[in-house]
Write a structure and sequence with these properties.
19 strands, mainly beta, 6-stranded antiparallel β-sheet, 319 residues, 2 domains, 5 helices, disordered N terminus, 12-stranded antiparallel beta barrel
Length: 319
């Protein structure tokens, strides 16, 4: 028996809420027992990007594809091997990509806020722009406006105020994780626990995911909710949210300390999906996902939001 696997993604929230029902709202057993699923969602969706100088991530297409063999399976980008498969309990070995790298694909630039409250930043640049090197600049931001430099570099004492240091986007790569997954299904809902580690050598970190899911059906309507937490090791947070940048060697200014070393932290997760079944294949779906970041992420100077959210509304067709 295939156990419903819980991942905090749009397609699987749709999958858990949708089901295949006949005209009486009952599950069609011949469809449930098939070893594959394929569906396409079309609509409007957007994921917020917590990084400074970033664009939100659009989402107009969602694909749900999974196939299960006797032991091996593929489930929406996740490969796995089943160790235990009981009616209400399962243990799997899983492997998948870490998705945190996707934020960097939607950055315009990275900027760090600097405050010169004591009027002490003396830099080599034209007023009010200072060129550190070919890829790094310091720009004064009076009243929120960035002023370009029309003059050749010169020694300038910046007046008190806020500054932004902009620099090239770091080269962050996807990590590939592998680990153990435990699933328990009961009348009160489903529990999912995952413990994975980076095996690609990108950062060498590990993370732990725990989710509780419950769904209800009311004739053609169905609602699914998920709550949980996601524990990330310091290696993951430091790699994707840490800052290793210093200009002390250039300006000899201890005030300009921009380094941030990430620590382990725990995010809080919540998801809600509503579904109206038009027929056995087509449904109208609305989904909302919320991720409250740990202080280890929000304390990073790269981040300007303490949460991220995902919204999607559209039609989902299941073949």
């Amino acid at each position: 028996m295939r156990i419903s696997r819980l991942l905090f993604t749009l397609t699987l929230l749709i999958h858990s809420a949708l089901g295949l029902c006949n005209s009486d709202g009952k599950i069609e057993s011949d469809e449930v027992e098939r070893n594959w699923d394929f569906g396409i969602g079309l609509g409007y969706g957007s994921s917020s990007n917590p990084f400074k100088g970033s664009d939100d991530i659009p989402n107009f297409l969602s694909i749900d594809f999974s196939i299960y063999g006797e032991k091996f399976f593929f489930d929406n980008g996740e490969f796995g091997f089943t160790l235990i498969d009981k009616p209400n309990f399962g243990v799997n070995i899983i492997s998948t990509f870490n998705s945190e790298r996707i934020y960097y694909s939607y950055l315009n630039e990275l900027g760090l806020n600097v405050n010169n409250s004591n009027n002490s930043l003396s830099v080599s640049a034209a007023n009010p722009l200072a060129i550190i090197d070919s890829s790094t600049i310091i720009t004064q931001v009076p009243d929120g406006d960035i002023i370009p430099s029309p003059a050749p570099p010169s020694v300038t004492l910046f007046p008190p105020g806020d500054f932004i240091i902009s620099f090239d986007i770091p080269n962050r790569k996807f990590s590939y994780n592998m680990g153990l997954e435990l699933i328990y299904d009961h009348d009160f809902g489903s529990l999912n626990f995952q413990l994975t580690k980076d095996i690609k050598g990108t950062h060498g970190g590990n993370d732990m995911l725990f989710l509780y899911s419950n769904g209800k059906k009311f004739n053609r309507w169905s609602v699914a909710t998920e709550v949980g937490f996601h524990r990330k090791s310091h290696e993951i947070i430091d790699y994707y949210y840490g800052v290793d940048f210093s200009v002390d060697s250039i300006f000899n200014l201890s005030e300009l300390d921009l380094n941030y070393k990430g620590k382990s932290g725990t995010d809080v997760l919540f998801g809600l999906t509503g579904n109206y079944r038009i027929n056995n294949n087509l449904s109208l779906v609305g989904s909302y996902k919320f991720n409250k970041f740990s202080s280890s992420i929000t304390n990073s100077p790269l981040i300007d939001s303490d949460y991220k959210q995902n919204v999607f509304v559209g039609l989902f067709y299941r073949f």
